Amino acid sequence: MIEFIKGYVDYVTPEYVVIDHQGIGYQIYTPNPFIFQKSNEEKTVYTYQHVREDLIALFGFQTREEKALFLKLINVTGIGPKGALAILAAGNPPQVIEAIENENETFLVKFPGVGKKTARQIILDLKGKLGDVAAYYAPDLFTSEQFEQKETANHALNEAVEALKVLGYAEREIKKIIPSLMEESLTTDQYVKKALQKLLK
Predict the structure, then answer these.
(1) 145, 157, 165: which is closest to 184 by C-alpha?
(2) What are the backbone angles phi and psi of residue 167, rounded to the nearest 5°?
(3) How far from 98 is each of 72, 94, 168, CA to CA, in Å?
(4) Residue 35: which of 58, 47, 50, 17 has the closest Cα?
(5) pLDDT per residue over 57-104, tens digit each?
(6) DSSP letters of 45-112?
(7) 67, 134, 198 from 194: Cα distances, Å
(8) 65-141, what's its fold?
(9) How many CB atoms lie within 10 A of CB 160?
């Protein structure tokens, strides 16, 4: 895995930039290539290497936090690297984080390729899981106490989900009840009990 590339901006296109690192030109897809103006100043681009059967591509970001948000987005079902880039390019990260935390589907469906189903999936998969990124981009969105509560609740919910899987419940069944479970901050035991009540109805 290439964590970052340090070099000079050799070429800028609407889709990608080329970074010259010791005479080798790296083609890197970025949310907004024109942020990287061609100059004699050395730049650091934080990268993610995407490998598919028919493609190997580098995606690059100005900060580790932007890269972290990208990685979270591409783990959402229905969001690929190009879709994640579009979200990062079209909306600034604090707005995206706030929309996810506030379950603002109307804002999320404005992005290319994001319909209502995908917007709901983004919220389902990422709400309460953006603490590390939000601390950088939107420090005023939550107090440190709220972050702690969210992280604790998120950990407890994840443990509860694993416990339900061990009990034999299918992932599709569990996913249906997760939104209602996320409405409260509970202990793992309480989440399990509440989930079982819902699953047995």
Answers:
(1) 157
(2) -70, -10
(3) 15, 6, 35
(4) 17
(5) 999 999 888 899 999 999 999 899 989 998 888 657 888 888 998 899
(6) EEEEEEEETTEEEEEEESSHHHHHHHHHHHTSTT--HHHHHHHHHHS-HHHHHHHHHTT-HHHHTTST
(7) 36, 29, 6
(8) DNA polymerase; domain 1 (1.10.150)
(9) 24
pTM above 0.85, yes or no: no
Domain parsing of the chain, residue ranges? 4-62, 65-141, 143-201
Tell me the C-alpha distance between 80 and 123, whole Å: 16
Q: Write the pLDDT tens digit of every residue in 32-64.
A: 898 888 888 999 999 999 998 888 999 999 988
With beta carbons less than 8 A apart as the criterion, state whether 126 and 69 touch: no
Q: How far apart are CA 31 and CA 87, in angstroms?
A: 8
**CATH tag, 4-62:** 2.40.50.140
**Element at 150 (helix H, strand E):** helix 144-166
Instruction: Return d(Cα 130, Cα 98) in angstroms, integer.
Output: 10
Alpha-carbon distances of 164 from 64, 85, 142, 155, 167, rounded to whole Å: 34, 34, 30, 14, 5
Longest dimension (CA), the chain: 66
* Cβ-based neighbour number of residue 158 at 10 Å: 13
